[in-house]
Model the fold of this input.
Amino acid sequence: MTVYWRPITACALILFALLTLCAASAPPDENSQNIARAATLIQAGKLDQAEAQLWDVLKQHPDNASALNLLGTIRLQQKRYAESETLLNRATTLAPDFLPVRVNLARLFNAQGETDKEITTLLEAARLAPTDADVDSALASAYLKQNDYRRALEALQRIPASHRPDKAFPLLAASYLGLGSINEARALVPAVMSRAAKNHSLLVDFAEVLLDFDLVPDALAALQIAEKQPPLTSEFFFAMGRARERKGELVLAQKNYQRAIDLNPKSLSALQSLSHLLAEQGKWEKSMELLARCRAIAPDSPDVLRKFAATSLHSGHAADAVDAAQQLVKLRPDEPEAVYLVGVAQLQNGDFEQARTTLERYLQLRPADPLALLALGMDEVNLRDFPAAQTNFEQCIRLDPKQVEAYYQLGSISKDQGDAPAAILYIEKAVAISPAYARAHALLGQLYLSQRDYPKAQEHLTRAVELAPAVADTHYQLGLLFARLNQHDRAQREMDQFHKLKAKENPGPVPPGSKPVTTAPPYPPS
Amino acid sequence: MIRSPRPTFVSFWPSALSLLGLLVALLVSSTELFSQQIPTQLPQLVDITDSTGIKFEHLSSSEKKYIVESMGGGVALIDYDRDGFLDIYFTNAPTVDMAIAGQKARSALYHNNGDGTFTDVTDKAGVGYPCFAMGAVVGDYNNDGWPDLLVTCLGGVVLYRNNGDGTFTDVTKPAGLIDTQFATGAAFGDYDADGFADLFVSHYVDFHLDDLPKFGSSKTCQYHSLAVQCGPRGLKGAGDLLFHNNGDGTFTDVSKSAGVDDPHGYYGLGTVWSDFNDDGRLDLFVANDSTPNFLYRNDGKGHFTDVAFLAGVAVSGDGSEQAGMGIALGDYLHTGRLSLFITHFSEEYAALFRNDGGMNFTDVSFQAGVASPTIPYVGWGTAFFDFDNDGWPDLFMVNGHVYPQVDTLDVGARYREPKLLFLNQHDGTFRNISELAGPAIRIPQVSRGAAFGDLFNDGRIDIVVENIDGKPLILRNQGGIHNHWIEFELAGTKSNRLALNARLKAFAGDLVQVDEVRSGGSYLSQNDLRIHFGLASHDHLDRVEILWPSGKTETINNLAADRLYSVKEGEGIVPREKILPPQRRESRQAPVSKGH
Done:
């Protein structure tokens, strides 16, 4: 479930901060005028000029809380978060009851994804302004990020119905739905409809919440009403795209996402969603193009980096995956999944020693992760450290007895060590778990062929070809088998097929010492 | 690991006894186990290069900007003067820059003085400057009893006729050996059993000094993103040539009609003749670099059919093309069938194809234990040879990378590489004993050709290695348990004079071994044409069966071990003089003999 709290929260907080800027105006002296001018300039996006105004004030009055507050917001917009926090904290110390500063601090923590701190700050703001609907709305939004639906609802229920701002309705819906109260959520619809006439985006936001909780028909109904209220925004098309995608109408979903992007080329949500859709269709290169655009728009977005890295891996751009994953780790050094992603990317990129170090580090954080053990084992196979690889594969199986790839890898190791009988045992287990595992059938066939058990070789190689007819090497093995059985015509047919498929695989010359094919590693745990 | 506190002496004593007893028991059992796997006294391969007096050094460019500078280095063992001691011919090549400037490189023939030393007789012999040389093989094209030398080159071949007086004559043109391509491997073999050895020459890439591929210029001129020499992939390949020996000192190119001309231009390297399916007809194996190998089945009417894929030797066991370089042939399993071992590039394994009979082979490289140790190296010259004379062929290969630039990479590969020696375990597997045969083979070098033979006629197989950078390595096989041996030098009468591809089956108790006389093999090199069998503890050979190329079979019974026997087709064991040609002291223009 994707929860789109951040845009709602950000909008709410910005609006609120700007309103409080105006509300908290100083006495009509020169300082106040400068501050008011600065506030106007900030609203107009003229940050440098606003800053100049504020420094004029602070030079003479370094403890002016309003000026510090505004300068803090400028730094926030410039993403200079550390400086922003210093300025806002200073303002808070100087004017503990100055509400706008608290709100701006909450914005800062929101921007950095530090929800706990955001909530603490908003609670302080609520203490200062217990009836402030915007503070309660922002607090509810923060609680929802943590899926704390009860507290979110409590915060929203403090707002009298008559004072309920538009933005509170989607938040209420989310709170009700999170607590399983579908009827209460649906009961909000009439109010939403009546307000939607003046606030077009409200229906879209409401529909998004319904989608988050899989109420797809309700969401679609709301969007179809919104569709009759032009102008249709990028957010509308994005929400419609989501609804269509949930309904399985992928072509329509794709069109809507594209429309959203056309209207707002910097819409990260739409770009990511379309990228995901394309990835699901196996169109990895196109998917990557879109994620590259996301990365250009939001280079420090952990979510974007995560998706970029994963898609890069799928589309064979391992070096790009390493780069993105390493950047993610810098932003999220304590996030184990980020470390795992780096390890897997390094493995795919052939940086086996680095991958080993990284995956070992991950396993110190998550020692019982079977996928990571599998990845580490595969890395050690590439490093030809078979004993270590074996240990990790066996541990993986202990944790996940149905991890078929681990059995396959153990079989491969046994084969490489010349122990065909042991290899057969492992691969037989793999096909028992996953009867449609073509690669395992092919290897099993090859092993039986080497052991001169021709009936079993034929059984498994034939199955492998049924499951994956375009794999050249299986046809080669079948050709060898039929040659052994003196069925020369069949043997030749298989060899001809092998040559045909091989020519497709390798249309041109490959560089010397081309990297051995590494089995695609398992992807990050969901 | 947590260590328990050290016990006091008193409390320790009783348990120490039992522990000691246990340890001793374990030691005994492990020794027994060890002795089954590795003899407690192994021979050593000792570097005697300096003491031989051999001063040869292969010229080299430090950067190896062009593939032709990396691919030479073949070495031939040839008893050119028929004095019973193997002499050595080292091939040499200039750098590309030198060649463009018209400079040459001196190959060298060293006469074996029989006392552990060698003398450079190149100038007298007239074999110093054949060409931009790659490899060399031995055959007696005119059946006069004097082994001739065929040198492969960038730009064709050179056939040196042995005049019998210590000199050679370049008879390439009169012999009709028209070849202008980049020749690499070669082998003499009488494929039509007419008594005259024919000649097959493999070719590598289409390479010209006036149109050089640009170093590092494209994907196929890069190794792990490092700029290196181009090829072979990305370069146009060259076809192969089969020359039929007309029996009158000339050859005819029958490549196309025979079906061995390689129209696709695979990158041919090592090549060897043998009867792989025991049908009495000589087949041909060609190791192709980065492209499928050829196994040409002799159809008996002057034509061959490539059956490599169906036979299972075209590519590796899992269907991958590999960089086929050198070839070894041997009956390592004592089945009477000759299996194939082919050396490869790094990050690939050297492949052992077990001969299962009926022209079927199985890649048993991993099963046999030879795959993993070979993966880090680029392998070249190789042979099955009985290192310790226990009657079971062991395996040796020399290595050396192609890119000097690899030393700047952090991929684990190094330009200079050690050699590998595998001891036959008698059960289809080999054990890597490279660390146990003396330090000489562990010294990293850039090796290419390797020729195996009994240089000192002491019943031990020695090894001559040509390094492409620097001086060669002469390894003398000495020490270890004394096992018996026997050697045979054959002379054909109805068969070709050197008895190429005569097959011997030697019986000593339950030890039954098969080997054959072969031209070529290894990497662009030539081994001793005499056949050697280790006999372990058997002090005699019960019998030897010889299948001559003419089809005649001869059996000789009850031969004492530790001797070299001369065998003449149709006459059995004869004094050595009876297989030698008459000594020539006249000029080089000796007539070509039509009969023998």
